[in-house]
Every structure is written in structure tokens, then in C-alpha cells.
Write a structure and sequence with these properties.
The complex is a heterodimer of chains A (about 110) and B (about 110).
Chain A (H helix, E strand, L loop, with lengths): L4 E3 L2 E4 L5 E6 L6 E8 L3 E9 L2 E4 L8 E7 L2 E6 L8 E8 L8 E2 L3 E5 L1
Parallel strand pairs in A: 2-11
Antiparallel strand pairs in A: 1-3, 3-8, 4-5, 4-9, 5-6, 7-8, 9-10, 9-11
Chain B lengths: L3 E3 L4 E4 L4 E7 L6 E7 L5 E7 L4 E3 L2 E6 L4 E6 L8 E8 L9 E2 L3 E6 L1
Parallel strand pairs in B: 2-11
Antiparallel strand pairs in B: 1-3, 3-8, 4-5, 4-9, 6-7, 7-8, 9-10, 9-11
Classes of the chains: A mainly beta (about 110), B mainly beta (about 110).
């Protein structure tokens, strides 16, 4: 299997621009997670989906962030408008289900907002 | 108090040394625990699960202390390739609930 795929790997944009991050989970995994990682706050869960349905978005920082999962093989995380404090590495992860299974992370998108 | 707390380090140890990390968690009802490893500028990957009875995988030993609410990771005979950040992960729920909490990570640097 190809693993979790994320694009782009790097994104540099200017404040106020819209940013869209993309994720393809591992086939057959029912759960998809979006995380943000910074030096100061570590790895934070933003939102997760089960069978394409958003289950918990309490980690989404504010209305500028939105996430969708239109089908089992694709999800997007959108930031509009972007701000410099959004600069971080954004990881997508997927999980087959079950309490003892692991989450598999994608390589991440390194976002820099100038 | 944070849900999951780790000493961020760095821990600088010579090759061949034994090093141990602890991670404390605040929710006494937490059900499952993991250690992940994250190399510099890479994604986190599962290192090992932590079982109530403890578990060992080669040079790595993970243990759970429910009474004191901490998990530990012991690395024996450290190798240069062990240099990474080790993330403690706690799942507070049973029955397949998926929202886990990651610690900030402990950075290990193994020195020649």
C-alpha cells in the first residue's frame, strides 16, 4: 500500500491567501485525522472523520479553518484567510478502527504564511 | 494540568547507554497507551503499544504504572539511529473511540 498521501509537501503563501491541503488515506481505513504540529504546542488534533462524517472538530482553531471529506479516499483542510500564526506542519493520519490499532501518518505539509 | 506531560529534553546520551523516559497522564480512566517515534522533519510512526503487563521489543521496553498514572520507555544499548523524538500517546476511552492525545515529545540525541 502507498500509505497516507498528502499534498503539497511544502506551501509558502502570503497572509490573507487561501490555502488548501489535501490528503488521501490508506484504502480501507475508516478514520481520518488532521493534526497540526508546532514547536510550542506539539501535535494537536484539529478534526477527525469516521466513514467520511466529521465526528469531532473541537480542535479547529477558528472559523478560518474548514475540513471536508467528500469520499473515502480524499479529504481537504482549508484555511481562509491564512495568517502567519497558521505556520506549522499539518499532518493527515488514517486508522483502520479498533482500540489497539495504530494511526498511520502522512509525510505532512509544511506551511509557511508570510 | 496537561492531559499528557513529557519532559521535552533533550536527553544527550553516549552510544551504548541506557536511557529512560517517563510520561504522565491526567485521566485515570485512560485505556490504551502508545509510544511513537518521530525523526527530524518526518511523520510520527508507532514504536510500540504499552500493555498493562509491560512489553519488550528488542532493546526497547515499555511499562505502564496505573497507580501513579505514568508510562515509561526504556532504551538499552543506545544506537546513533535511536536519535529522534519520542511521543507518548494516550487514549482515554475504550470501545474504539479514536481521539488520542499526544505528548509534546522527548528529544533523544545519542552521541558517538
Amino acid at each position: 500500500d502507498a500509505g497516507v498521501i498528502q499534498s503539497p509537501r511544502h506551501e509558502v503563501t502570503e497572509m490573507g491567501q487561501e490555502v488548501t491541503l489535501r490528503c488521501k488515506p490508506i484504502s480501507g481505513h475508516d478514520y481520518l485525522f488532521w493534526y497540526r504540529q508546532t514547536m510550542m504546542r506539539g501535535l494537536e488534533l484539529l478534526i477527525y472523520f469516521n466513514n467520511n462524517v466529521p465526528i469531532d472538530d473541537s480542535g479547529m482553531p477558528e472559523d478560518r479553518f474548514s475540513a471536508k471529506m467528500p469520499n473515502a479516499s480524499f479529504s481537504t483542510l482549508k484555511i481562509q484567510p491564512s495568517e502567519p500564526r497558521d505556520s506549522a506542519v499539518y499532518f493527515c493520519a488514517s486508522h483502520r478502527g479498533g482500540n489497539t490499532d495504530t494511526q498511520y501518518f502522512g509525510p505532512g505539509t509544511r506551511l509557511t504564511v508570510l | 494540568r496537561k492531559e499528557v506531560e513529557q519532559d521535552p529534553g533533550p536527553f544527550n546520551v553516549p552510544e551504548g547507554a541506557t536511557v529512560a523516559f517517563n510520561c504522565t497522564y491526567s485521566n485515570s480512566a485512560s485505556q490504551s497507551f502508545f509510544w511513537y517515534r518521530q525523526d527530524c522533519r518526518k511523520e510520527p510512526k508507532l514504536l510500540m503499544s504499552v500493555y498493562s503487563s509491560g512489553n519488550e521489543d528488542g532493546r526497547f521496553t515499555a511499562q505502564l504504572n496505573r497507580a501513579s498514572q505514568y508510562i515509561s520507555l526504556l532504551i538499552r544499548d543506545s544506537k546513533l539511529s535511536d536519535s529522534a523524538t519520542y511521543l507518548c500517546v494516550v487514549n482515554p476511552h475504550s470501545g474504539g473511540y479514536q481521539k488520542v492525545t499526544f505528548g509534546i515529545g522527548t528529544k533523544l540525541q545519542v552521541i558517538p
